[in-house]
Amino acid sequence: MKRGIITAAILICLMARIQIGYGQSLQERLESLTQDNARRYLQPMGDALGANLNSGFYHSAKVGGFGLHVYVGVEIIGAVIGEDQKTYTAKILNTSGQIMDQPDVPTIFGPKGGKNVSSVAGQSYTLPGGTDLGLFPIIAPRIQIGNIMGTELVLRWVETNLPQDLGKFSMKGYGLRHSLSQYIPLSPVHFSFGVFLQDVGLGDAVRVTTSYFGVQASKRFMALEIYGGAGIESSTLKAEYRVGPGVPGADPGQKIAFSLDGANSTRLNVGMTLHMLLFKVHADYNIAAQKTVVIGVGLGL
Question: How many domains does the chain have?
Answer without folding.
Answer: 1
